[in-house]
Amino acid sequence: MNRIIIYATLACLCFGAASCGSTPEPSVPKVSIFCDHIESVARQEGIPFAEAAKLIKNIGFTGADVRVFQKEDEIRALDSLGFEHACAITDINYSKGDQKVLEDKTIAFMDEHGFDRLLLVTGLLPEEGIPQSEIVLARERIAAFATRVKKLGYTIMVEDYDSKRSLCYDSERLDSLFSVASDLGLVFDSGNFIFAGQDALEQLKHFRDRIGHVHLKDRKTQDDMTCVPIGTGCIPIGDIISDLSGSGYQGWFTVEQFGSRNMLEDSKTSYDNIIRLIIK
Q1: Residue 131 neighbours by CB under 8 Å, 6+ apart
Q2: Model pTM score
Q3: Enclosing H/E stretch for 172
Q4: Is residue 142 packed enough to be buried (19+ CB in 10 Å), middle (13-18) or exposed (0-12)?
Q5: What is the architecture, at CATH level 2, of domain 28-279?
Q6: Which pLDDT tens digit goes with each residue over 208-224?
Q7: I need a labelling partner for 280 at 20 to 30 A (CA). Which of 11, 172, 181, 203 fits?
Q8: Dist CA 185 CA 154 (whole Å)
Q9: How distant is the alpha carbon of residue 142 from its chain centre?
Q10: Residues with Cβ < 8 Å from 149, sequence gap 6 or more?
Q11: How far apart are CA 104 and CA 167, in angstroms?
C-alpha cells in the first residue's frame, strides 16, 4: 500500500472523521456595515479611518457597503483588512433628466473595485412635485440603466426608501417601478416600510423573489423613527431573519443605524444580536 495512503488512513483514525472532511465547517454569517458608519466611528473616537475599520472588523463584520466615489484611501484600508465588497451604492436623481455621466462613473467604479452588486438610490422628487408624465420618464430612465448594468453581469437594485418624495417610498411605488424595470432587484430595508405605514413581514413576502441584499434597520417605536441597535427596537428583526433564511436567502445582512451617537458600541450590539438570531 502506498505510504501516503497509510498516513492519511492513520490520520483519520487518530483525529476522527470531522478532521477528514466528513463534517462541513459551519458557514460564516455574511454581516456587513455601511462604510459611512466606519467613518462615524473614526470621527466619534477621534481615530484614523483605518483604525476605526480595524475595530469594526474585530467585532466580526466581514463586508462593507461602500458609496461610489468613496475616498480611495478608505477603500484601500478596507481591502487591506479583508473586508468583502458587499454592495456599492450610487445616488442618481432620475427626476432631473438623463444621467449618463453619473451612470458611466458608477459602472467605472464597479469595474475598478470589483463590486458585483449595486444599490441605486433614485433621488427625491421636487417638493413642489412633477407631472405624472415626468415620473413615467424617470422610471423609464431607471429601467434603461438597470438593463445596461445587468448586461454587464452586475446585480442592480433599489430599496424601499423612507421619504414620501422617493419613487421607492412604498410597495405601490415599487411595484410601479418594477412593472417597467424587470431587471431591477430589491434591497429590502427592514426599517423603512414602517415609515410608510406598511408591515415589514408582509412586504418581505410580497417582494421575496426580488430581494438580493438586505439592510437591517431597527426603529425605536412605532411612533419614533429613530434608528436604534438591531434587536432593541420595534421591528421584528428575528422574524425577518428567520423568514429570509428559511426561504434560502444567502446574501448579506448590512447593519444600518444612521444617527447613532455611539457607533462603535451600537455596532457591536447590532452584530451580536444578528449573529444570535442567525444561528439560533
Answers
A1: none
A2: 0.89
A3: helix 171-178
A4: buried
A5: Alpha-Beta Barrel (3.20)
A6: 999 999 999 999 999 99
A7: 203
A8: 11
A9: 20
A10: 107, 118, 156, 183
A11: 22
